[in-house]
Amino acid sequence: MMKVMIIEDDLVIASSLQEELMRWQYEAFHVTDFNDVMNTFAQEAPQLVLIDIKLPYFNGYYWCTEIRKISQVPIIFVSSQSDRMDIVMAIQMGADDFISKPFDLTVALAKIQALLRRTYDFTGNDVYLSYQQVYLKTNELKVQYQDQEVELTKNEIKILEVLFLQKGAYVSREAIMMKLWENDSFIDDNTLAVNINRLRKKLAEINVTSFIVTKKGYGYGLQKDDHDEID
């Protein structure tokens, strides 16, 4: 089930979007702590974000920029500030689409579904992330290459999900560790390295080698070419 995060301080609009998405079998939730959006994002790991421009504490442009530092998850702005410059600014900050208020729920849902289709691979009722013919089955805790599969732990799935969503860009160690933050238990750098090494060994079991690459002093990414450095 795809998860949608709604960052909207108008409870009527947030609830309407949540109810409509849930009616169409999406898992939807809206933010309640607008001063702690990134921890909520890291813990919930949504597949799509809906965000208003005018928000308490920091505006939507700020949070869009913060999300883009750690993820390429699709983002749609939903706002009454919808003149040309607002839309241009949203796209420049990393948004994928813009819905102007007031809006029709049917039209909003169609835009959300279209963006999800463009971003993710759908096979039957399952949703996979894919990169270079490697498929990440998040719901099944598995990764597949050709006709081979291997089971992963929840942390290994979360690490790969971050890397898949970046589409080949490097992700900082701090961003990955934020993703792994659960139940007030912080994953430190040594633990992350152990998880990465175990993940590489599991990928090698299905003949996926040199897939996770290291940018020294920064973090990890997925292999783009022969010049990537392996640690």
TrEMBL record:
GO terms for molecular function: phosphorelay response regulator activity; transcription cis-regulatory region binding. The keyword Manganese does not apply. Residues 3-116 form the Response regulatory domain. Residues 126-224 form the OmpR/PhoB-type domain. The modification 4-aspartylphosphate is found at residue 52. The keyword Phosphoprotein applies. GO terms for cellular component: cytosol; protein-DNA complex. Residues 126-224 bind DNA. InterPro entries: CheY-like_superfamily, OmpR/PhoB-type_DNA-bd, Sig_transdc_resp-reg_receiver, WalR-like, WH-like_DNA-bd_sf. SMART domains: REC, Trans_reg_C. Keywords: DNA-binding, Phosphoprotein, Transcription, Transcription regulation, Two-component regulatory system. It holds the Pfam family Trans_reg_C. One of its GO terms (biological process) is regulation of DNA-templated transcription. PROSITE patterns: OMPR_PHOB, RESPONSE_REGULATORY. This is Response regulator transcription factor. It comes from Trichococcus shcherbakoviae subsp. psychrophilus. The lineage of its organism: Bacteria, Bacillati, Bacillota, Bacilli, Lactobacillales.
